[in-house]
# Entry
Amino acid sequence: MGWDEAGAGFEHPGLWFPMLGVLLLGACQAYPIPDSSPLLQFGGQVRQRHLYTDDIQETEAHLEIRADGTVVGAARQSPELELKALKPGVIQILGVKTSRFLCQRPDGALYGSLHFDPEACSFRELLLEDGYNVYWSETYGLPLHLPSPSSPYRDLGPRGPVRFLPLPGLPPAPPDPPGILAPEPPDVGSSDPLSMVGPSQGRSPSYAS
Amino acid sequence: MSRRGPRGSVVLAALVVLRAVAGLSGDGRAVWSKAPGSGPVNESQLFLYGTFPKDFLWGAGTGAFQVEGGAEGDGRGPSIWDRFARTRLGSGGGAGGGSDSDSYAFLEKDLSALDFLGVSFYHFSISWPRLFPDGEARAANARGVRFYNALLDALARRGVQPVATLFHWDLPLALQRRYGGWRNASLVGLFNDYATFCFRAFGDRVKYWLTIHNPYLVAWHGYGTGAHAPGEAAGAAAVYAAGHNLLKAHSKVWHNYNINFRPHQKGWLSITLGSHWIEPNRSENMMDIVKCQQSMVSVLGWFAHPIHGEGDYPEEMKKKLLSILPLFSEAEKSEMRGTADFFAFSFGPNNFKPLNTMAKMGQNVSLNLREVLNWIKLEYDNPRILIAENGWFTDSHVKTEDTTAIYMMKNFLNQVLQAIRLDEIQVFGYTAWSLLDGFEWQDAYTTRRGLFYVDFNSKQKERIPKSSAHYYKQIIRENGFTLKESTPDVQGQFPCDFSWGVTESVLKPEAVASSPQFSDPHLYVWNATGNRLLHRVEGVRLKTRPAQCTDFVSIKKQLEMLARMKVTHYRFALDWASVLPTGDLSTVNRQALRYYRCVVSEGLKLSISPMVTLYHPTHAHLGLPTPLLHSGGWLNPSTAQAFEAYAGLCFRELGDLVKLWITINEPNRLSDAYSRSGNDTYRAAHHLLLAHARAWRLYDRRFRPAQRGAVSLALHADWAEPANPFAASHRRAAERLLQFELAWFAEPLFGSGDYPPAARAHLAARARRGLAGAAPPRFSEAERRLVRGAADFCALNHFTTRFVLHEQPRGGRPDSDRDVRFLQDVTRLRSPSRLAVVPWGARRLLRWVRHNYGDVDVYITANGIDDPALEDDRLRKYYVEKYIQEALKAYLIDKVKIKGYYAFKLTEEKSKPRYGFFSSDFKAKSSIQFYNKVISNSGFPSENSSPRCTQTQRNKECTVCLFLVQKKPLIFLGCCFFSTLVVLSITIFHKQKRKFWKAKNLQHIPLKKGHKRVLS
# Structure
């Protein structure tokens, strides 16, 4: 009698477990849990940063990749860089505005390249305890440091790595609200003062971008 | 038409008094300090369709000296302008030089011109020296009197009201010689004598009198800059003395008329005041607004304040000019005040030139007639306004096709209508200036302002109506602007299988997966205490999972945006150069293809189907693989073969998932890029067509049986309208543009298999005239078979409508062989990049396609506008609504087989025109919600219609799905929590139970004796 009663007591969990299983399976189908990347402590796998340094004695500088491919230290906050992880500890650095990757020649000179060359353009990122980072070329093992202002291309001489602080970009300046800027004044000396007649080139927004 | 005041009720009078007290000078400032318009799609700023008040007066105007001619014949004396024209302008003497319109001789022709227009009044001026050759009103020149009598009688017969100006600048030369013109106060009495004669002689028929036309120009340019007759640059004192005398002359004449003539003639009298308009450099800047006020006060206020205001000059002027400005005595002030029965206003080019003599105060001149009317309303207590002169000029070589004049008139007149309807300004009449081409003062005959063209060198001086005359006639007939272009909105829905999409341009494939930590088999140790580097542990290999689509971060971002847009289709483009870097199949970038496959497959999981563009070149980036670019790009026929191979690869790799393909986006724009010569343009276009046709044939042969998709190419398809609807040449130019832009690609594919004959004929005609032009390539018979029919649907990227002008054929530039130019209709709503919002153009385009190519399936593959707003993008909302509405009309009424609508575009780039539904940093704009609604309604259903598609049901389901997808972690943790709770409670329950049983068993212990019984 006692065993019988005990058996009856286990009938309930027998119903519950399959139900639970169904519920759990339904909830965690095959999708990964979003935003679960361990790299998120950096605010994403891709970081938009300015690389700031004050190791150059005279002045503070931001690393800037220019449209012509030169790399300089700019006093003013330069356009944003995109730091993206390639593999553990290794990143690529892309100038967002110029679409050029930061790359290093075997002699240590920096340049901006439109093409991503994993050899020349991968950098190892090392975090220091004071919050600054140092970067080394993954291939050549050379430290990343800004060229001196006098010779933008070459900066020879044994020097240690330069410490960079990856600063988050400033919030973009609010754009001018429409209507505040005065429109072009009419050319009142012309028979077409409102510049209505124009060239016949039909531009397409879809061809422009 | 009576003087305001006495008839008004007590309340009204009180209101007027209040306003007069509050409305001392300076109120006009409010025009500039108004809140900045609430966005571009502000009802009060849009072109206003509507009519003018029922009794609105329509007129045309002329100045006697400008058109009359017959200078010193028939007893007319010389005027200061005769001398000025001869000595300063070198023209053979404005009037009578044989090079004018000669209205004195051809009066009948002027009257016919008025008949043509259907005006209700004619605003002309009486020539003082024609009536009194030496200016003194002693014996009138009988022939002169006869002329004006004839004019007035003829007008009366036609039911055209005369509006007569007594003095439009042609001062008898004798008065200038004897008295020094208007600098001398004796002119006041002399003018009054002349006016008295006119009232006596003509006042029985003239009910509207204007004393002086634009006294500002007479004083400022006649005595200040010397740009007008008498051409004196006599200094500020002379200028303001002349102005003072002009004011007093007017006042004297008004009192004269008021006392001696009004009782029996019952007319009204005023003075025409002219002005420019000005806008602050920086809106809402108080300093700039003050300067604008000063500028208006020193021109319009100079004459308007004494007459329409308090009888004295504006305070600003008195302060600034101190001793220079003459003083009004108290008696003079009260005599001056209120000496006008309505406000007669002139707004035209003369007040804007020469620009360097204007009192701009460093601000921006403006042609906004509506605002200046508002200024008058605020400064002078909402007077009744007659626009006594308005219009612009054309260059003298323009004959009857004065297209810009049409749009200037449209712009000005709509502003007047807005002022009446929206700002409640009492404008009761409008004078188009001028009726005829004539002598244009300091410009002599270098500009034309007539509604009617006159060949000055001809004998008969025929008045030929210009386009603007036709246009004005139409406005008078309709008494305003009636809505003709667009039919009223319809209610209805698109079919259930309609594809609602959004367009994105080229997606750059992510080269490296963004989360390598799952695919790197190595184990690392972080040397946390030492050099803080990660060290790979050799010899250990971990299990990795296979690559999967979630490795690409950018796809997730796109899907989030697409899910928010709730579209059914996503149109994006592949990057040919990334997929095939060498241009042939020797190197295939599998990673890129995998990326694109992921975009497609992940989208399909959210039931968003792809429309894939194989090749999307842009202005900045031709998008060809480098080797192909170096071998001549599209000028090289082998590029077409390379494209076929590339297309084949894409069909094979993605075709199982992609059912809608666009081979090439906007080949008609791309061919323009080959602009070294016209031949290059046509050759590139030829190869693009062949490339598309090859890809289509390949799909048709090899892939369609299994994949069952559809392939076409997307054309840049803006609509074209004639800029000048009255010129046949413009209508032909608009159709020609469509032939070159659309039919050039559509005719080979959907039509004959050859280029459009109309375009070929145009090129041949140019060649016959010896103009440098290109000959389009010819299709061989094989090519024709290849191309003809090689498209499953018609894909149109439609953004706007172009207003097309015919341009005289020229050689030179390759794109010039279309002989067209574009005109921007300034009255239309437009975007910052000057894209005009012309929704009905879309419907006309769709009809044109159906008319020319039959019942093909049509997809609108891109349609959108740039809106400067980052969040509340009302312009885009308006645009999308109106354009979808027109597409719906085309579907429901015109039976165009529209299969899909793709809004342009998903995201925008930084510092480029803002076309995106999402900003460059992926922030959603408010138009998304609107588009959502249109999609879920499948159009614009009437309120009581039941949803026809099960789509709404599917959407409901999907909101649940979406919730599940979005809250996955929460659900997961919730489940974990719940199951723990269940397990725990079960455990506790059982423990309790066991305790209970134990207790029970213990209770039963004494019964152990009965054990046998139990067992048995």
Summary: Residues 1-11, 27-41, 151-158, 174-180 of chain A have pLDDT under 50 and may be disordered.
